[in-house]
Amino acid sequence: MKRREFIALLGGAVASPLVARAQQSNRMPRVGVVMPGAATDVEFQRRITAFQQGLHELGWTDGRNVRIDYRWGESDAERIRKSVAELVALPADVILAVSSEVVAVLQQATHTVPIVFASVADPVGAGFVDSLARPGGNITGFLLFEFGLAGKWLDVLKQIAPSVTRAAIIRDPKTAAGVGQWAVIQAMAPSAGVELSLINIRDAGEIERDIVAFARSSNGGLIVTASALATQHRELIIRMASDHRLPAVYFERYFVAGGGLISYGPQFDDNFRRAATYVDRILKGEKPANLPVQAPTKYQLAINLKTADALGLAVPPSLLARADEVIE
């Protein structure tokens, strides 16, 4: 090969990746969002709005300098898998994931696309990250809560309904979080003088049958632990608690807004705003492996006084004074 031809070929080889990067830099970055529920769900829309506001405060506006692609799982495993495959194929530059179920599908689909989760209870136990301090892979994000919170639900139940001596714990047994929350409540139960029962969430029929069976004896109450299935079946659970006059503690305020008695848990909207900061940092070049998983910083207590009155419960003034939201 002649020297001039060799130099020209070498110059082209060196320039090609530079040109490719220059072309790629002109492409509008894409953020994928996978929500496990329906687009019509008011609470999920609240969280999307919080995420969008967080991005906007950091200088990102959908359609102007970033494109956000939304996918809704409709509580259907096959639809979630399809949504994940679509976003990975785009390709998205980073994907916001909600729930352990969605993150598990994403983990199987890609080891390269950065993933930020906004609400996962046990990312280490689920195998999503190596550790909270150093995630180590392409996944990081924000905890749903710390497991110690589960013990507070039992304490709140006894405060608002002191006569309760039996509590049914509603959980998803297929998740590490379901097992972990149950373990914490079990450890607290003897000192609270409460006998525990388990109601495992699989389908609506099982939830109805188990709550009906539990309610046949007196002095009972419910603790609804955090899971995507509890969210999916929340209207049924709230109705069953009301029909059988069971005081119930929930992990999130939207249960109380829907007619539930009382909730204590993190402000999920805040988690989504904070998730926007990680999406921003990843779009600017940081790696998920170096961004530690963070715990919630804001918690809220919500009480529905109308539901308390219907159950014949007098809410202690000390509990009312601590409430962040009271629905009358």
| Helix-and-strand structural type | alpha/beta
Q: Give a short account of the largest sheet.
A: 7 strands, mixed
User: What's the overall average pLDDT, rounded?
Assistant: 90
Estimate percent helicity: 40-55%
CATH homologous superfamily of the largest domain, by name? Answer: Response regulator
Predict the CATH topology of the largest domain. Answer: Rossmann fold
How many domains, in number, for the residues? 2
CATH architecture of the largest domain: 3-Layer(aba) Sandwich
* Strand fraction: 15-25%
What Rg, in angstroms, do the CA atoms define?
Answer: 23 Å
Any idea of the CATH class of the largest domain? Alpha Beta
Order of helices and strands: HEHEHEHEEHEHEHEHHEHEHEHHE
Structural shape: elongated
Instruction: Please give the oligomerization state of what you see.
Output: single chain
Distance between the termini: 86 Å
User: Strand order of the main beta sheet, please?
Assistant: 7-6-8-9-10-11-12
Number of strands: 12
Low-pLDDT windows of residues: 1-23
- Figure out the total of helices: 13
